[in-house]
Predict the structure.
Amino acid sequence: MKAVVINGSPHGDKGNTQLILGPFIEGMRAAGAEVKVFETRSMTVRPCQGEYGCWFRTPGQCFQDDDMQKLLPELLEANVLVLATPLYVDGMTGPLKMVVDRMIPLGEPTIVSRGDHCRHPGRGSVKDRKMVLVSNCGFWELDNFDSLVAHVQAIAKNLDAEFAGALLRPHGPAFKAMLDQRAPVTDVLDAARDAGRQLVEQGSIASQTLGVIGRPLLPRDMYVAIANQKMPKPRKQTDNRQ
Ligand SMILES: Cc1cc2nc3c(=O)[nH]c(=O)nc-3n(C[C@H](O)[C@H](O)[C@H](O)COP(=O)(O)O)c2cc1C
């Protein structure tokens, strides 16, 4: 099984998203998957220009000579696509969305009916592709992810992939702090590792496992109080007017 992971956090492997993504990848690799990781922070990917050259002039090929040229062939062969992102204004980060937009060379221009919708057939030979979302966010509640999950589910439908689940870590910054303080939260890491293993071995992730990954780590009021207490004080405004 081949998996491609795209991490859209500007903090890459030093970020809060990575805290869940890291063990998830470990679990996939331990179960025998070949996993390739791409980080948008170290990629040059320009916005889609919408001229459809990749459909009509050079089918399957985008004219833009940037890092999508490395990613697209990997995506064609991937059985699993993992989108990893911090929640940014109720969605994915801009750089990750740019990468997703640039995936249209993976589809053909013709329109077919799939289920009850118009779709573009995909290129490549991989059948039964699966998609997984990994995300974390600053606010406390799990439902902050609702709009992002709906979006990624829609992307999966568009790409004719099965949405295989979302590893969601609300109050992500608290998770980092609690790990640093050796608080009893390592069950979350174990569950993320287990999710990777389950995906490869069973083709799905148990909802109980996803529940542990997203479980409350501390009461909401306590989180709000601690977060506000630790907030760096804004620097005094200097008057730059002359
Ligand atoms: C531009 C921006 C937008 C954000 N929007 C949200 C949001 O809508 N909801 C939320 O709960 N957290 C939001 N956050 C907080 C991040 O999701 C949070 O800090 C996360 O832990 C960062 O993950 P990272 O370290 O992997 O980048 C936002 C942060 C930034 C910088």
